[in-house]
């Protein structure tokens, strides 16, 4: 299916990206050619194949990944806020939501 | 100086840790203008650690000492507490993670010394290192050419003999391809072999931390140190870690090497083909049986990969929003505006392209057609490998269809750049290990790499085969830009 500039606009909004006009114009044919390329998968009959979701190895799938349910130290408030662009009163301050 | 030489000279009292590290730091600093391999060089930290080692090395019995005083460079998407982790991106410019990756702790416990953070394609997305937001990396064999990517800085640092070992990450070939283009050994272990705690996520069902070294023994020793189950990474498998170095017997008798002939066709450079064919003959001469195998779905691997990798990336990179760390765009009036402007300013073109693609293939109405379809073809590819490994112990292919290309040569055509990954993405999709080893020089004096692929957990076999080849056909050539002899 052809990808239009308005599709690109919609996808950018979903991806929380604010593209410039130049970026939108450049991306439209690039995305279209990449999507056309990946659509070659449609020539394969996959009706009998299970999707490869979950573990890639049998041994990985068998590993009990749950750790013991015991409290461990966490980063702590000071370290967690250490690199925040705008920390305030023990919180991450952000612009207004509405 | 490789690891063995370093250890010998250290044990003989010829050098101390401080001298070893000083040499690596000086080389890193002096060659960085030419190569651009490092984004940060930790002179003070590395020398302090070397001083500690020199003071305590003789009487500390609690540690393995396997990598005592070995200088290691680390890709800038692996967290080292106290150092930056920009991932080659503006959005994480100046970010200093509050903890170290498990692989870093294991390296340090074995005596290794981190000398710096290496340049890479932004968030490990690229095959040429030209997507770094900071500066490109240049190939030590020809500085007009790319080192490959995305772990280009780590590859260049090892190829130029600044450090004997470096870490990278391999999501679709980002360790093996630059190793090939720079004439060194590169290993991508089995999915779940090495902890990814502290590796910045790109494609979580594909990512694996990998190793660069100048020879197989150093790569094998380093993997012995960093591999194994980690409770902090639920995808690590509870599998014993073999002594990989003990596998380097040189014995190829009874070994079966599979050749997927359909991958030696169109698009493969003539010099690369000739070198890999010659390597196959070397294996035959060493006593291996060479068998033809088929991977009928390998030609779909790039299409599968660029759906799954971008889908996972679009999800993983949603966390960069300007709230908790990293860049925040100034003067935004609403939260949503702040998110969008931060991401617009912080991400480069390739990262945006992949986030857009990934968002598209996961969006409502398209999920089944793209993502689910790709995951089904991924199963078919895994089945191809399972069938092929019934007939052979390892598969041999070129690592990259060409030798190192010129900077700027492929930047205008993203799809052409993606096709570069044809030989490497299959291992990540199937979760199997892969190793690239130098197998000659092209007529233009550029290194050529061959790739060995094996079943899950077959690293011992891959190391044994690579080492046997290395003994039979030593790769003695050195790049024009090198710290060796300094």
What is this entry, summarized?
The complex is a heterodimer of chains A (about 100) and B (about 475). Chain A has about 100 residues and is mainly alpha-helical.
Overview of this protein structure:
The complex is a heterodimer of chains A (98) and B (486). With 98 residues, chain A is mainly α. Chain A has a domain at 1-44: Histone, subunit A (Orthogonal Bundle). Chain A is built from 4 helices and 2 strands, in the order ααααββ. A two-stranded antiparallel ribbon of chain A has the order 1-2. Chain A is flat. The mean pLDDT of chain A is 92. Chain B is of the alpha/beta class. Chain B has a single domain, classed as Amidase signature (AS) domain (Amidase signature (AS) enzymes, Alpha-Beta Complex), CATH 3.90.1300.10. In chain B, helix 7 runs antiparallel to helix 15 and helix 9 (301-316) packs across helix 12 (368-391). The radius of gyration of chain B is 21 Å and the shape is globular. At the A-B interface, helix 1, helix 2 and helix 3 of A face helix 9, helix 10, helix 11, helix 12 and helix 13 of B.
Radius of gyration of chain A: 23 Å
Morphology of chain B: globular
Main sheet: strand order of chain A: 1-2
Percent of residues of chain A in beta strands? under 5%
Strand order of the largest sheet of chain B: 1-3-2-4-6-5-10-11-9-7-8
Q: What average pLDDT do the residues of chain B reach?
A: 96
- Helix count of chain B? 15
Which fold name corresponds to the CATH topology of the domain at 1-44 in chain A? Histone, subunit A
Report the radius of gyration of chain B as a whole number of Å. Answer: 21 Å
Q: Please give the most extensive interface between any two protein chains, plus how many residues each contributes.
A: A-B, 58 and 75 residues
CATH architecture of the domain at 1-44 in chain A: Orthogonal Bundle
Distance between the termini of chain A: 36 Å
Fraction in helix of chain B? 25-40%
Strand and helix order of chain A: HHHHEE
Q: What does the main sheet of chain B amount to?
A: 11 strands, mixed
Low-confidence stretches of chain B: none
What is the correct CATH architecture of chain B?
Answer: Alpha-Beta Complex
- SSE order of chain B in H/E notation? HHEHEHEHEHEEHEHEHHHHEHHEEH
Summing up helix and strand content along with how strands pair, one would put the structural category of chain A as: mainly alpha
